[in-house]
Amino acid sequence: MDAMALLLDRQSHGRLEAPAPTAEQMELIYRAALRAPDHGELRPWRFIEYTGTGRETLGSMFARAEQEDNPDISDRTLEKARSKPLRAPVVIAIVASVTPNHKVPRIEQVISAGCAAHAMLYAAHAQGLGAMWRTGGFAHHSCVRQAMGLEKDDELVGFLYLGHCTQGDRTLKPLEPDDFVERIQA
Ligand SMILES: Cc1cc2nc3c(=O)[nH]c(=O)nc-3n(C[C@H](O)[C@H](O)[C@H](O)COP(=O)(O)O)c2cc1C
């Protein structure tokens, strides 16, 4: 795939189905993540991959978070939270693993992990896979953070849902660079 076409045409796919990406495809996705810009070579990221029934572990975390916020929650809402990770055959939690009190500020380390997630979206698209970056209501919940072993300064930058697209591309709303760029020329 042409690199510019990749950059200009990528889009998110929320409806994803099996089969899961192959081991070779996953390897390339992680390798792309590891090429993210990284001030100080801190490698401020880690990835937790949920597949098969492993996704139920993540669903249980979501359900626990939901229940903690609202103990009187209905079974239906609880089940909805629990089933969220089943929306794709692979879900990857991307954690900004932050080195505290470092000359590279925390925000730069979190951005770096975000860049890794971004690279993963492109690596998926380049291989004909569908992907979507989600945080939902749970990524920053103390329950989920604790279950994933996040340290105080860490950040869960999101969940990457990965699989095969069930639908074609949607028509994108055109955006114009001139609406976002300020040019200082003198
Ligand atoms: C940090 C982050 C978190 C996001 N969380 C969600 C989410 O929880 N739910 C959602 O529908 N979209 C979420 N999005 C947006 C989608 O990933 C996607 O970018 C959006 O639907 C636009 O689609 P596009 O990527 O094709 O332009 C998130 C994006 C980012 C960068």
TrEMBL record:
Where on this chain does FMN bind? R10, Q11, S12, R35, H39, W133, R134, T135
Coiled-coil features, chain-numbered ranges:
none
Cite the EC number.
1.-.-.-
Asked whether the UniProt record includes NADP among its keywords, one would answer yes
Tell me where in this chain the Nitroreductase domain is found: 10-164
Organism superkingdom: Bacteria
| Family indicated by similarity | Belongs to the nitroreductase family.
What's the protein here called?
Answer: Putative NAD(P)H nitroreductase
Query: What is the protein's species of origin?
Result: Kushneria konosiri
